[in-house]
Amino acid sequence: MQHAIKLDALTDKKVILVCGAGGFIGTHLCEHLKSLGHTVVGVDLKYPLYSDTACDLFHQQDLRNATTVDTIFENGFQGRKFDEVYQLAADMGGAGYIFVGVNDADIMHNSATINLNVLEACRKYDVKKVFYSSSACMYPQENQTDPDNPDLAEHTAYPANPDSDYGWEKLFSERLYQAYERCYGIEARIARFHNIFGPRGSWNNGKEKAPAALCRKVASAPEGGTVDVWGPGTQTRSFLYIDECVEGIMRIMESDCNEPLNLGSTRKISINGLVELISQQCNKSVAINNIDGPLGVMGRTSDNNLIKQKIGWAPDEDLETGIKHTYEWISQQIASGAQDV
């Protein structure tokens, strides 16, 4: 599932800032940008946990601090200002983090502050183009009550009614980026991520999403053992492997589309079905025990009609290969006694 992107628009080498460069998607994105020959500067509260950074320069700094953000933008890289910014930094996690209520204030304050600081620095230091990672969590919860027929076409975002404060913050920040484009001429590209997964993502720190959590549970279970699954297990999701996500980011960034676009798979699978798929990929038999727990919406699957129309591309949907790679990586972490912090 590796994709070598050879786009004519990328022949000019750029100085690029990646915010959230120490995180799961950020580390993969930085590696890809470097493979294209760009100079990459990263910033994050934490250094990458599972790999060395590919960045030419990495700032372990807090993007909630406006003075820090200003200094990073002012300095650029060896006197050269940033040509582009990829803004992935956010306070986020899986259902066990964003749907339990106790983290809502931190999620909204931290992520909104980061976006306000980054955008203002983009304006002040004349950054021409910025990518913002939004989320499918910003869609109205009433559009996601039917596991078999969720309605997540981009135009259904309004009237707004996200199922979490995480989703409300994402919706606010989308509007923020679009306002800066209208008022200050910064080209903004926005992708609504749908459950991105793969190696080097959170897997046991309370912020992991379903694929990683369930890979961990299956890997930790004995043959014929039991795996606990939150909710009835009939709730559906679609999952996008990290390589596909990075390719989508690049294609959206290089397009002329300034509307928010879904970036995800249209292949929906129930959570119980995901456990069964994982067990098939690793040739281990497990039983499912559905228990009470944070649930989220009952159905969420990407609608890819608009992305096909606007940029002439949509992700592959080889969930099996992505799960195989992710399961193998998590199994290695468990065997080595690693801890995800």
If you had to describe this structure to a student in words, what would you say it looks like?
With 341 residues, the chain is α/β, with parallel strands linked by helices. It has a domain at 15-197 and 241-266 and 302-316: NAD(P)-binding Rossmann-like Domain (Rossmann fold, 3-Layer(aba) Sandwich). Helix content is 37%, strand content 16%. The strands form four sheets. The protein has a seven-stranded parallel sheet with strand order 3-2-1-4-5-6-11, with helices on both faces. A three-stranded mixed sheet has the order 12-9-14. A two-stranded parallel ribbon has the order 7-10. Helix 1 (24-35) packs across helix 7, helix 4 runs parallel beside helix 5 (165-184) and helix 6 crosses helix 10 (319-336).
Could you write a compact summary of the structure shown?
The chain is of the alpha/beta class. It has helices spanning about 25-35, 65-75, 95-100, 105-125, 165-185, 210-220, 240-255, 270-280, 305-310, 320-335; strands at about 15-20, 40-45, 55-60, 85, 130-135, 185-195, 195, 225-230, 235, 240, 260-265, 270, 285-290, 300.
